[in-house]
Amino acid sequence: MLKSILNFSATLTALLSDSATVAFIDSEGIDRLNANLAVGDWIYATVVSGNIYEVVKITSVVGATIVIERAKDYTIAREFPIGAKLAFILGVDAVQDIVDEIQLNGGKITGDGEIEVTRGVNGEYIVSAPKITLFSVSEDIKVIGEFPNYILR
Fold first, then answer.
1. Exposure pattern of 50-76 as b/e (b: 16+ CB <10 Å)?
2. In the prediction, which pLDDT does 97 show?
3. Alpha carbon separation from 51 to 57, 64, 92, 124, 153 (Å, rounded)
4. Which domain holds residue 144?
5. Quick one: which of 28, 39, 83, 94 has the most CB atoms within 10 Å?
6. In this structure, are residues 149 and 128 in contact, taking their beta carbons and an 8 Å threshold?
């Protein structure tokens, strides 16, 4: 199940090639993931170095490494150096996971409008979404509320 680990961040401790599916991160990041992810849980994170980024899906922790699925949210798998930063993100694929889980468990989604993406003055992408209300009757769904506008850096 998709988990939300707000303020999760970590640092790569080894080079991440563009074809790697395992990444080495700092012990604080490993500890935080181990404390919050059970078998079958996952989160999404951005990997950032300078102005290059990629969204990955972290599916498990094995020792001092994380198992990842690459190129999520329409990004491209890239090579990242030691010291690149990872941070939790609730992006397109995460929202789709939430929608799929809600629909699977008899929930409903309401809202209308369009999503607008613009480029900010500092080069960041600003994603503006209309108010979307998510509700589920399942005990497993942890999201109830409105998906906010957010900034991708």
1. eeebbbbbbebbeeebbebebebbebe
2. 84
3. 20, 26, 20, 9, 9
4. 93-153
5. 94
6. yes
Distance CA 15, CA 26 (A): 13
Please state the domain count of the chain.
Answer: 2
Asked if 14 and 26 touch (Cβ cutoff 8 Å), the reply is no
Give the residue among 129, 7, 115, 20 at the shortest CA–CA distance from 66.
20
Same domain assignment for residues 22 and 49: yes
Indicate if 57 and 116 belong to the same structural domain. no
Taking the alpha carbons at both ends of the chain, their separation in whole angstroms is 25
Contact call for residues 55 and 82 (beta carbons, < 8 A): no
Residues facing residue 16 across a β-bridge = 80
Tokens of residue 77, six digits: 């798998």
pLDDT at 150: 36
pTM for the structure as a whole: 0.70
Domain boundary pick from 34, 54, 89: 89
Residue ranges of the chain with per-residue pLDDT less than 50: 141-153
Determine the pLDDT at residue 108.
59
Count of alpha carbons within 13 Å of 4, Cβ hemisphere only? 11
